[in-house]
Amino acid sequence: EEEAEYLGEPGYTWSQPINGSPADLLGLELAWNTSLGFLASFLETTDLSLNYTWTDSSAAYPNFPETTILLPEQVQEVFNGSLRWKHGNWSVAFRTRYRGLRLNNLLVPGQDIFNQGFWSHSLSLSYKASDTVSLSVGLSNMNHPGRIAYQGTTAQLVSHRQTYQSLNLGINIRFGKGQPVAPEPERKDNGREESE
């Protein structure tokens, strides 16, 4: 940013985006999926899925060579967990998600604006009425997670937004049935079918 004139009048600020210097990004992802078949017969069709992602980055802030920041919109940690149970035409799924610390914007060095990490949980129920029709109902943000933003440290609170629960109702109807397609016979360059 620099001071500038507009239509001959001073006191305006002229700003433009600047490309940063090369940045480093390192990440690791772990995933585990399993069927809990060792449970009692009524629950043996339960599946568990876990996924964890960790990333770290280092980028120089333009014009401040001694200051390094996370890449904009960078999320350091994300965790997803899913527990799904099937019985006949019924299916129940519980999902939990953690979205970690995120750097929103860098106003000036040392005054970073962060969004604190938060957990959210959801529950869904579906019923397969037929091969073409299924019904579903779901509840998102069961725990009303708060999304806290702070400046520099958690002692400098900027905002605290409470998320809302949402109820989803759905019906899925599939029209038509797929038909297998026979492969095209191989042809020679002259366009005649190849035979053996």
Descriptive report:
- The protein has 196 residues and is an all-beta fold.
- It has no helices and 14 strands.
- The protein has strands spanning 2-6, 9-14, 24-35, 46-61, 64-69, 77-87, 90-99, 102-106, 112-115, 118-128, 133-140, 146-151, 157-162, 166-173.
- The strands form three sheets. Strands 3, 4, 5, 6, 7, 10, 11 and 14 form an eight-stranded antiparallel beta sheet that branches. It has a four-stranded antiparallel beta sheet with strand order 8-9-12-13, with no helix packed on it. It has a two-stranded antiparallel ribbon with strand order 1-2.
H and E string: EEEEEEEEEEEEEE
Approximate strand percentage: over 45%
How would the global form be characterised?
A: elongated
Please describe the biggest sheet, giving its number of strands, its sense, and whether it closes into a barrel: 8 strands, antiparallel
Q: How many H/I helices?
A: 0
End-to-end distance, in Å?
Answer: 76 Å
What is the residue-mean pLDDT, rounded to a whole number?
80
Q: Helicity level, as a percent range?
A: under 10%
Q: Structural class given helices, strands, pairing?
A: mainly beta
Write down how many β-strands occur, each being a DSSP E stretch of 2 or more residues: 14
Explain briefly what this protein structure is.
It is built from no helices and 14 strands.
